[in-house]
Design brief:
Layout (H helix, E strand, L loop, with lengths): L7 E7 L8 E6 L2 E5 L8 H8 L11 E3 L5 H4 L2 H6 L5 E4 L1 H27 L14 H8 L2 E3 L10 E4 L2 E7 L7 E9 L2 E7 L23 E5 L10 H18 L2 E5 L5 H14 L8 E4 L1 H12 L6 H6 L13 E4 L2 H9 L4 E5 L9 H8 L6 E4 L8 H6 L5 E3 L2 E3 L4 E4 L9 H9 L6 E5 L3 H14 L4 E3 L6 E4 L1
Parallel strand pairs: 3-4, 4-5, 5-6, 10-11, 11-20, 12-15, 12-16, 13-14, 13-15, 16-19, 20-21
Antiparallel strand pairs: 1-2, 1-22, 2-3, 7-8, 8-9, 9-10, 17-18
Helix pairs in contact: 4-5, 4-8
The chain binds zinc ion (ZN).
Zinc ion (ZN) binds next to loops.
Length: about 475
Amino acid sequence: MGLAKTKMQITFYGAAQNVTGSKHLIQSQGYRVLLDCGLFQGRRSEAREQNSELPFEARSINAVIVSHGHADHCGMLPLLVKQGFTGHIYCTNATAEVMRWILLDSAKIQEQDAEYYNNRLPEGEDPISPLYTTEDVEIMMKQVRPIPYFRIRPQWTILNERIRFKLYDAGHILGSSVIYLECVENGKTHSLGFTGDLGRAPAPILHAPEVIQEPVETFLTEATYGFRNHRPINDAKKELRELIEYAYKHKSKIIVPAFSLGRTQELVYLLHELTDDGEIPRLPIYIDSPLAGHLTDVFMAHAEDFDHESWVAFGSKGEAPLAFRNLIYTHSVEESKAINDMKGPMMIISASGMAEGGRILHHLKHNIEDPNSIIMFTGYQAQHTLGRKIIEGISPVRIFGKQFHVKAQIRKINELSAHADQNGLLNYIKQLKGLKSIFVVHTEVDQGTAFVEALQASHPNVSVTMPEKGYTVEIK
Ligand SMILES: [Zn+2]
C-alpha cells in the first residue's frame, strides 16, 4: 500500500448552522490555517461552555487570517494565544485596530462577569476565571501582522512556498475583508474564497463589497440574511425621519441597541445627512458607549477606507461625517446615568447590539415599561438573546434578574444592517468564476436552508451545502 496523498481539508468549527463563533480550519499537507477565531454568543450558559475550550490544539495552528473585528469572528484569539498558538495573525490595518478595542472590551466584560459570579458563588461551586484578561489581549496583539487590502497594495501574502492569500474589501464594517487563498498540492492549485461577513451595496460610508477576480473553486459564504431581502436604504431613511418626528412631537426617548461598530456609524451618518438637509429636528442624540467612541476615532483615522460619496457629502464642507452639533458621545458611567433622568425627546444609541450586556440594559430597564418610549432595532438578533425576545413580542422579559413588561413601542429597521440580503449574496456569487462547491455558513438552519435552495437553483452544476459544526470536507 502506497502513501495516501493528503488532500486539502476544511473543517467547520463554528458559525456552522449558527451565526456566531466563526472558525474554519484549512489543512494542506500538514499546514494549518485558521480562518477567523470567533466567540460563540447566545444563551449565557451555552456560550460559556462552547467558548471554554478550543476544538483543536492551539499549538497545531500555523497561521490565522481574520476577516473582520466583530467578536464573533475574532473574540477567541486571546485564548488561542494563551493556549500556545505562536504564529502570525493576519488582517487588514483597520481590523487590527478595531479588533484591539473590541477584544479589550470583551476581556473587560468577562473580568466583570467572573467577578460578579464569584461574589455570589453558589455553595460547593468553584469560582470561575475570565476566558482571558485585558493583559492577554495585549500579548495576543503582538502576533498581529496587519496587511493592506490588495487594491491598496497589490501584493500577495505568502504563508509558505505553497500557500498564499490576499484580502478584498467585504464592505461589511471598517476593515472587513473577503479572504482569497490559493494552495498548491501535487502540482494542482486549489482556490478558496471566504466572505467573512458580506456588506450591502450600496451602503453609506463603506465601499461596496469587492468581487474576487480569480477563479474560486471552493467558496464559503455567510447567509445571515439569506432568506430575505432588505428594502431600499431610502425607505429606512424615510422611516427614521417619521420616527424622529414622532419622538419630537411626543417627547419620546428612542432607545437603539447597536453594535459599537457598523450600525452605530451608519446610523450617525444617516442622521447627520437628515439633520443637514433640514429633514429632521435637532434632537439630542447620545452615543452612550465608550467603545463606540474609540471605534469612531479609528474610523476617522482610516479615511482611505471610506467611499467617495462620504467625502462628497461631508468632506467638501470641511465636516467630519461622524460628528455634528447635537450628537453627544458619553464616556463615564456618571454621564451615562445622567441620561436616565433627562426628559425626551432624544435618541440613545448604546451597545450591545443584541441587548445581551453593556449599558443598553440600563436604558432598556428605564424605558421598556413606558408606552411613550420606542425601542429601535437595527441589526440581526441571534436566537436566545434579549433582543430576539423583544422583537418576537415576548413579555415580560428579564433584565438584571427582574421581570419587565414590554410596553414600549418596538421598531425594526433592517435596512441599516451591515449584511447583504439574499439578492446581495446571490449577486455577489453570480460574479464569481470557476465555482465547484459552495458551503453556506454563518446562518441559522431555517434561513440557511432557504438560501441553499435559492443558490442551488441559480447554480445547478455547483455543489451547495450547509455543513454541520465539526464537519470536515476533503477538497479534490
Ligand atoms: Zn460581522
